[in-house]
Amino acid sequence: MGSTRLPVQPWIGALCLVGLLGTGCGGGPKTYPVKGKVVYPDGTPLTGGIVEFEALASEVGQVNARGTIREDGTFEVSTLFPGTDKERDGAVAGEHRVLVIPPLLTDEAMAKGAKPAVDPRYRRYETSGLKVKVNPDVNEITLTVKKPGQ
Asked: 103 with 48: CB under 8 angstroms?
């Protein structure tokens, strides 16, 4: 009787790859703290929404960083998963395209004729025109957005 070979389970290779990436890469890309504020041209803050950075060139491929815009217009971006090393979190160094997504309008607000808080062009990287450079130092960024029709 010949020897019986057991088939290699595909999940074993995937598990090994995940283990290597988790330990061999230092736990993710090197990121730097980024804080900022989203304002209108008159300096009034955008009072909610999301800001997202897309790295234009990164050694680790496509890397985005995201943050929630607070009521005073301030934000901090994060690339890592929640609950990870906050002192090391932020965005990868280099040039980034930026998009700004304002808070969604309620049906009631739209029925009363409310307009979006920012021009729709800021919702897409391709049309926002917003770019920032993240450095391995202090990153304090002000993003200026316009309302629809401005």
From this structure: yes
DSSP 57: S
* Per-residue pLDDT tens over the stretch 93-111: 999 999 999 998 888 888 8
Are the beta carbons of 73 and 47 closer than 8 angstroms?
yes
- Cα distances from 105 to residues 55, 100, 101, 109, in angstroms, run 29, 15, 12, 6
- Taking the model in full, what pTM does it have? 0.74
> Would you tell me how many other CB atoms lie within 10 Å of the CB of residue 100?
22
Q: What is the 3-state secondary structure (H, E, C) of 78-147?
A: ECCCCCCCCCCCCECCEEEEEEEECCCCCHHHHHCCCCCCCCHHHHCHHHHCEEEEECCCCCEEEEECCC
Helix (H, G, I), strand (E, B) or coil at 20: helix
